[in-house]
Design a protein that fits this description.
Blueprint lengths: L2 H19 L3 H15 L7 E5 L12 E7 L4 E8 L8 E2 L1 H20 L11 H12 L5 E8 L2 E2 L9 E3 L2 E8 L1 H9 L8 E3 H5 L3 E5 L8 E8 H11 L6 H10 L4 H9 L4 H4 L3 E5 L1 E5 L2 E6 L2 E4 L1 H13 L8 E8 L5 H12 L15 H12 L15 E3 L4 H5 L5 H10 L5 E3 H11 L3 H5 L2 H18 L6 H23 L8 H18 L2 E2 L2 H7 L4 H19 L8 H4 L3 H8 L7 H4 L3 E2 H30 L1 H14 L4 H10 L10 H16 L6
Helix pairs in contact: 1-2, 3-4, 7-11, 8-18, 9-11, 16-18, 16-19, 16-20, 19-20, 19-21, 19-22, 20-22, 26-29, 27-28, 28-29
């Protein structure tokens, strides 16, 4: 997609989101980009907080549109929007950029240096932001200012230098439409991170080659100064951490005390006590036997070490000059990264097991959900005679990538089959499920932390019984998506909704409804919801009633609470909401079904999934053919990796050409054997 075409598509998305949620262009645009930045790991979370057009007083000529407090990175992210909605793509000059950032700086400096927030309306989200900056800014070391623009930044702007604002280091990040286009066009890949050790630290990183005689990969051993590692984490934050390591850190949300104590009390022994880090990169530039540059460096093991060094140096002012960290660095071709990186992460994390270490986009759970989404047709609605599908995007950018080489006519037909409003991602699914499974508070912690929680519990459930994730589960997920998105639209239209806390209200409304239904020992009829693809009037009315109560509760926060968004993240808030008296209308109660019926449906769906698994496995075994299985048998015998029973099953598969075929059970086992042989070094051509 060319830039001009992307710009027009972006304008359409802004208008569509504004119509759906009743928002003006600026917050709609910012929400679209913020969701992408969260998915890409650039930011941890995002909350709206709008202040502009102040003509007088302390906040004159100030502006802010959103924020995120990141405890992981000791940083505050502040956002400002530039959205003119011109018919044609326009240019953002350097002078205009400086002027816009200056308005954001004024908001920050006014907030920390005075109690001007007292003049604001207490129910406004920006009041809570200003209050928190005034009272807690000293808890954070770094400031990140984001300018999100639908113009393209002038080519004369080569780089943006950070600076000091009083006690804070400030970095400036412009996400203009060109950069958004590159992120969109990367088709699931994150924006490149180029680390220039010479430019950033004055000299290359000394290393030792560890791939002598190996043609397929390159590996290096290096010793990284602790200060360098902490500075890299401070600059790149979560983008330096491979996805599952970042997920692991968010799930634990605490710095390892043992590592911290060694940093502070025994820095000279850190190298001896610590296991170091394992990392990958897509490319390195070696100059005189040292690493001069690295592209897309990712830490796949050692996230706690890296984060601990950063936190200790920033919060406790620890001296890192005597600390060094060993690093094993493997160069991984991007074409095989999805296959190799998970294995490196899995094996490197054996001592400190990451609960969701294999919950990557290619985890069988996501693959199965994707398969359902490409196969199951949703019933036609609103008098239409055309069925559609719900697109599950297991890897970021799949929806766009699927259309990348299509003609306009084919792309139009594709969007009719997979409408954009019926696309949902892994983080979306985590929100839908956690709201209804008793974890509405986790949803309020932000997309990444919520997904971390979801990944842990779903990965454990998968290991326990993967047949629970069947067609009925997918239809239930879609039903919850319909409810979630309908609740968003409904809240936006209410006269009592003043803006700012929609995400919190939506999550807790569904959480309370789920709790009330469970207390009746009943369940929503997800099969009926799937068939109708819309909410019944009784369900929508029930959601409206609960949402009003949730809004009243969260906006009437205790006296010691000033930031409602942060209040919604606390356990006390969720516990208080759970004590509300939720009355369900009689006509809605009639739509519920008893748990006994649900259990029977689940039982039947699991049986069907077992059959489907067997059929799919048998199909895969047949596609690989008898000669392939003969090679696998020979390799397994030579490597002594097979049990007598496994050898017998492989023998059966190797004789398929004679008319003898493995059963469905044997086919499932064959794929398990194949995975085992691949781990032993057997290669599938």
């Amino acid at each position: 997609m060319e830039l001009d075409e992307f710009y027009q598509e972006l304008q359409h998305r802004i208008r569509l989101k504004g119509q759906e949620l009743g928002d003006s262009p600026e917050p709609s645009f910012l929400e679209i980009v913020a969701e992408e930045l969260c998915e890409a790991g650039v930011i941890e979370d995002f909350s709206h907080a709008y202040l502009s057009d102040v003509k007088s007083g302390p906040y004159r000529n100030s502006r802010v549109d959103g924020y995120c407090f990141s405890e992981e990175n000791d940083s505050v992210d502040l956002f400002i929007v530039d959205c003119k909605q011109n018919d044609l793509l326009d240019t953002l000059t350097f002078t205009e950029m400086e002027t816009i950032f200056a308005r954001l700086e004024r908001f920050f400096l006014t907030s920390i240096s005075s109690r001007a927030f007292e003049e604001m309306e207490e129910s406004a989200p920006v009041y809570g932001l200003a209050y928190q900056l005034n009272n807690e800014a000293n808890k954070f070391c770094n400031l990140r200012f984001f300018l999100v623009s639908e113009r393209t930044l002038s080519g004369r702007v080569k780089s943006l230098e950070g600076k000091r604002l009083h006690e804070w280091d400030v970095s400036y990040h412009v996400w203009d439409v060109s950069r958004q286009h590159r992120m969109y066009d990367s088709r699931g890949q994150r924006e490149d991170v180029i680390i220039d050790f010479v430019e950033e630290f004055g000299e290359p990183l000394a290393c030792l080659s560890a791939h002598i005689g190996a043609d397929e990969y390159q590996s290096y051993l290096a010793v990284v100064p602790g200060e360098q590692l902490a500075n890299l984490y401070g600059t790149y934050g979560g983008r330096l951490l491979e996805l599952n390591v970042r997920t692991f850190l968010q799930a634990r949300n605490k710095v390892n005390k043992g590592i911290r104590n060694t940093i502070v009390n025994n820095p000279d022994r850190f190298f001896a006590y610590n296991n170091g880090i394992t990392a990958t990169a897509e490319e390195v530039e070696i100059v005189d036997g040292a690493i001069a540059r690295a592209r897309n460096l990712q830490i796949v093991n050692g996230g706690q070490t890296t984060a601990s060094l950063y936190h200790a140096s920033r919060k406790q002012k620890a001296d890192l000059s005597r600390i060094f960290v060993q690093m094993k660095l493997s160069i991984v071709n991007p074409e095989i990264a999805n296959e190799v990186v998970p294995k490196i992460s899995e094996y490197a994390n054996t001592q400190n097991k990451v609960n969701a270490s294999d919950f990557f986009s290619n985890h069988p759970f996501h693959v199965r959900m994707e398969e359902f989404s490409r196969r199951l047709w949703a019933p036609a609605t609103d008098g239409s005679q055309k069925e559609t599908k719900w697109f599950y995007e297991r890897a970021r950018g799949q929806y766009a990538e699927a259309q990348s080489d299509m003609t306009p006519a084919r792309s139009k037909a594709y969007k009719l089959e997979y409408p954009k409003p019926q696309m949902f991602t892994k983080t979306d699914l985590a929100k839908f499920d956690n709201c209804w499974d008793g974890y509405a508070r986790e949803v309020n912690l932000g997309a990444q932390k919520n997904f971390a929680h979801y990944a842990q519990r779903i990965a454990a459930k998968w290991d326990d019984d993967n047949t629970a994730f069947n067609e009925d589960y997918f239809r239930q997920a879609v039903g919850r998506a319909i409810i979630f998105r309908a609740t968003e639209k409904m809240v936006s239209k209410q006269d009592w909704y003043q803006g700012g806390y929609r995400a919190n209200i939506v999550a807790y409304t569904q959480g309370l409804l789920s709790k009330a239904i469970a207390e009746m020992k009943m369940s929503l009829d997800y099969q009926s919801l799937w068939q109708k693809q819309t909410l019944s009037p009784a369900l929508l009315f029930t959601l409206e009633t609960i949402a009003r109560s949730v809004n009243e509760f969260v906006t009437a926060a205790p006296d010691h609470v000033r930031n409602v968004t942060e209040w919604c993240k606390r356990v006390e808030c969720w516990n208080g909401l759970k004590n509300l008296d939720v009355e369900l209308a009689e006509n809605f109660k009639k739509e519920l079904i008893p748990l006994s019926e649900v259990r029977q449906r689940v039982k039947d769906a699991k049986k069907t999934q077992v059959i489907d698994d067997g059929i799919m496995a048998q199909k895969k075994v047949l596609e690989l053919s008898a000669p392939f299985w003969r090679k696998a048998l020979e390799y397994g015998m030579k490597s002594r990796a097979l049990s007598p029973k496994d050898s017998g099953i492989l023998q059966t598969a190797s004789m398929m050409s004679s008319g003898k075929f493995p059963s469905e059970y044997q086919s499932i086992r064959l794929l398990q054997i194949l995975q085992k042989l691949e781990e032993e070094g057997f290669k599938v051509d």
